[in-house]
């Protein structure tokens, strides 16, 4: 029931894709891969949830960085390797997972070794996450585990909603990995939580500090990865912002929650819904 309800939030082509995969089940499952290498943070995180631990040959260096990875503690128990073709020659895996941005030597080596090279694109909304799960699960031969993860994701998403969804508040997002461009992941999360992007935010997800102060949104969302990592993060400490946005009007959202499309992304939605409930008076301020 939860899975069918979840299909209603997806586009028609994606719903057909998921439903066909769901009905096919283990009959369409590929061979289980026992020597898997991931060269990308997002494939790292899904791989750690879907694969048998003994089947993971290596993860990307970002996997163990707790500022960027939601699975850093678990990842620390696995080998880490540079995301390049040279290491693939040494390990000779039977499947390689990566993002769409990769080093040129990677496809050269996978082609030469006749190793499947599976690339995971970035996501634009929560509706893309089941496809990400299915892609990785099928690539490593763990379709059943992928189905289980999608069911759990759908059940949790169905349970998340603000107390007053009809009260649409304004929000501005600044900081690492939280560009608030219309149509992106953070925009989708805000919409589901009962917010809309401030009208003064530019299409590329930026806003002048003076404009932010003159036309303050109901909620300022800041995303931190690591201290001093970028100018976008430095602006969060500006005295004018500290004085203007306090209490329920400020939400610090860890950048790692929106770095990739995984079930943990729902933690970001949960935090935004709680912020909406505080602003509408249905949840006490911490």
TrEMBL record:
For this protein, the record's Pfam families field holds:
Peripla_BP_2
Q: Which CDD domains match?
A: TroA-like
UniProt-listed Gene3D superfamilies? Nitrogenase molybdenum iron protein domain
Question: What InterPro entries does the database record attribute to this sequence?
Answer: ABC_Transporter_SBP (IPR050902), ABC_transptr_periplasmic_BD (IPR002491)
Instruction: State the Gene Ontology BP annotations.
Output: cellular response to iron ion
Give the Fe/B12 periplasmic-binding domain ranges: 35-283
Recorded protein name is: Fe/B12 periplasmic-binding domain-containing protein
Organism lineage reads as: Bacteria, Pseudomonadati, Pseudomonadota, Alphaproteobacteria, Acetobacterales
């Amino acid at each position: 029931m939860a899975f069918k309800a979840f299909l209603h939030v997806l586009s028609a082509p994606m719903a057909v894709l998921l439903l066909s995969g769901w009905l096919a089940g283990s009959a369409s499952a590929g061979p289980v891969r026992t020597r898997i290498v991931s060269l990308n943070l997002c494939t790292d995180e899904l791989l750690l949830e879907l694969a048998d631990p003994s089947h993971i040959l290596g993860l990307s260096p970002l996997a163990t960085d707790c500022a960027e990875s939601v699975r850093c503690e678990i990842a620390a128990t696995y080998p880490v390797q540079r995301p390049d073709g040279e290491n693939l020659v040494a390990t000779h895996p039977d499947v390689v997972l990566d993002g769409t941005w990769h080093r040129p030597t990677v496809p050269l080596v996978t082609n030469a070794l006749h190793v499947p090279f599976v690339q995971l694109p970035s996501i634009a909304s929560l509706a893309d996450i089941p496809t990400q799960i299915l892609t990785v699960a099928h690539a490593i031969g763990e379709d059943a585990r992928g189905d289980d993860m999608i069911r759990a994701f759908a059940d949790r998403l169905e349970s998340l909603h603000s107390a007053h969804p009809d009260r649409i508040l304004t929000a501005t997002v600044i900081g690492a990995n939280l560009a608030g461009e219309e149509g992106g992941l953070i925009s989708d999360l805000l919409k589901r939580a009962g917010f809309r992007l401030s009208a003064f935010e530019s299409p590329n997800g930026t806003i002048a500090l003076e404009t932010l102060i003159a036309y303050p949104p109901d909620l300022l969302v800041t995303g931190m990865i690591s201290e001093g990592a970028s100018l976008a993060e430095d602006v969060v400490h500006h005295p004018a912002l500290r004085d203007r946005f306090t209490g329920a009007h400020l939400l610090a959202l860890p950048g790692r929650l929106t770095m990739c499309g995984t079930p943990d992304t729902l933690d970001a939605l949960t935090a935004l819904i709680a912020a909406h409930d505080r602003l509408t008076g249905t949840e006490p301020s911490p």
